[in-house]
Amino acid sequence: MGNASQSVKTKKAPEIMEASKPDTATRIQDVAERLFVEHGFEATSLRMITQQAEVNLAAVNYHFGSKDALFESVFMRRLAPLISGCLAELDELEQQGGKLEVEELVKTFIRPCLALSKDPSRGGALFVRLLSRTLVENHRQLREVISQQYSVFVQRYSVAFHKALPELGAEELAWRMHFAFSVMFNAFAGNDVLKIFVRSQVVSARDPDMIVKHLVPFVVAGLTSPA
């Protein structure tokens, strides 16, 4: 019995050692992030993730416990700094005093997204696409987590847009913000639908700077159109 027990412990040791490596969790997150963008949450299996991350299932279970928990972890590690960046921009704008301009409010959200898309160390364009795709595809569990943890973000922007557009009723403003943020998330999602309308190798809806150039005036026009 003693030898058998020792044999089992020896057999499990490599799995435990692999799972507990400091960089293993990050490697799993990086691979999962890419696969979630390429295939979506439902179509991405744990088998795909473990094979490409070159780890076993025990490592995923050790660090995250489930596919849902892994997805939440992948998402939240990037989202928190982005939200902080947006609120910092909003703080700076509000501290300037005077009437809040809609275009400047929109840019307090767009600028951090643009900066993130150009920073590979924070996920770069890959995470911006994941963020957009996740919200567009309505991942219910994650949307609930976002609502709970980032209610301050929603509240701050709602108040700011109300001040900038006092002529709009609460319901009308809510609809306009819904459409505005939906358009912005879709624009950054990386689905190059533009190719359907413009058959050119030069024009691409995956160029962050080009997206912002055309996106901001479109969103502002929608938010400020007569009621």
Automatic annotation (TrEMBL):
User: InterPro entries, from UniProt?
Assistant: DNA-bd_HTH_TetR-type_CS, Homeodomain-like_sf, HTH-type_TetR-like_transc_reg, HTH_TetR, PsrA_TetR_C, Tet_transcr_reg_TetR-rel_C_sf
Q: Where is the composition biased (Basic and acidic residues)?
A: 12-21
The UniProt annotation gives the DNA-binding region as: 45-64
Q: Which UniProt keywords apply?
A: DNA-binding, Repressor, Transcription, Transcription regulation
Q: Name one GO molecular function term.
A: transcription cis-regulatory region binding
Q: What is the superkingdom listed in this entry's lineage?
A: Bacteria
Q: Which SUPFAM superfamilies match?
A: Homeodomain-like, Tetracyclin repressor-like, C-terminal domain
Q: Where is the HTH tetR-type domain?
A: 22-82
The keyword Transmembrane belongs to this UniProt entry's keyword annotation: no
Q: Indicate yes or no for the key word Nuclease.
A: no
Write down the Gene3D superfamilies for this protein, in alphabetical order.
Tetracycline Repressor, domain 2
> Quick one: where's region Disordered?
1-24
PANTHER family with a match to the protein in the record: HTH-TYPE TRANSCRIPTIONAL REGULATOR RUTR, TRANSCRIPTIONAL REGULATORY PROTEIN
Name the chain's protein. Answer: Transcriptional regulator, TetR family
